[in-house]
Amino acid sequence: xxxxxxxxxxxLSGEALAGDKGFGISPTVISRLAGELRxxxxxxxxxxxxxxxxxxxxxxxxxxxxxDRASADYMGMMAGxxxxxxxxxxLEKLGVPTRVQSAISMAQVAEGFIRRRAVRxxxxxxxxxxxxxxxxxxxxxxxxxxLRAVEIEAxxxxxxxxxxxxxxxxxxxxxxxxxxxxxxxxxxxxKDLKVMDMTAITLCRENKLPILVFNMNTRGNFRRLIMGENxxxxxxxxxxxxx
Length: 243
Prior knowledge:
- With 243 residues, the chain is an alpha/beta fold.
- It has a single domain, classed as Acetylglutamate kinase-like (Carbamate kinase, 3-Layer(aba) Sandwich).
- Helix content is 36%, strand content 19%.
- It has helices at 27-42, 59-64, 69-93, 115-123, 141-151, 185-190, 198-206, 221-226, and strands at residues 7-12, 46-51, 98-102, 111-112, 127-131, 156-161, 166-167, 179-180, 182-184, 211-215, 232-236.
- The strands form two sheets. The chain has a nine-stranded mixed sheet with strand order 4-3-5-2-1-6-10-11-9, with helices on both faces. Strands 7-8 form a two-stranded antiparallel sheet.
- The longest helix has 25 residues, at 69-93.
- It is globular, with a radius of gyration of 17 Å.
- The chain starts with 6 loop residues before the first strand and ends in a 7-residue tail after the last strand.
């Protein structure tokens, strides 16, 4: 069976690693995620990952409680690196060759981000995990994911969430919410849908980079999506949105 995508970037939230605890790293959850990533890797898809640090600290939340925003964001980047190293460990325990690249210099634990080196790792069949966001405060890991995906010429960004796509309202609070199968970047911005932040959506739109949103908690969804099945919502350039 052949993958529908040559190279993809998957964006994972730090909170996803916490499981039901809501904080820290759940060994069960990170092992399951690593297993799903390995399945996709075995299909021949070149795979890279951007992961947040919200299970440890969220810069925006810390800033809202009085901490200096830049300092809080740097702490969030460090938290993202903790998660990147944890995911690397889980993948390598499954025999998947992995490299972590950091947007902030920390030579003892990870390579610095170098675009050409990242692409070469992917070409050699290694999973590349991009840590520490963009390396700059005031930018989210959503923006980091869009930036890295454009830089490495990925076919798509894949965003794993707790729901099975993009809805016209939060389906966890509005049972009658309607799911889109496809929606345009512009409609996401106009409707203020919480897919990714505005900077990330705009960057994807300018570079015609599709965003695939799916439920990462359903076992096998990632593999089905990579095989071309409709298991979520695709955000792309459309003349009109379709549900």
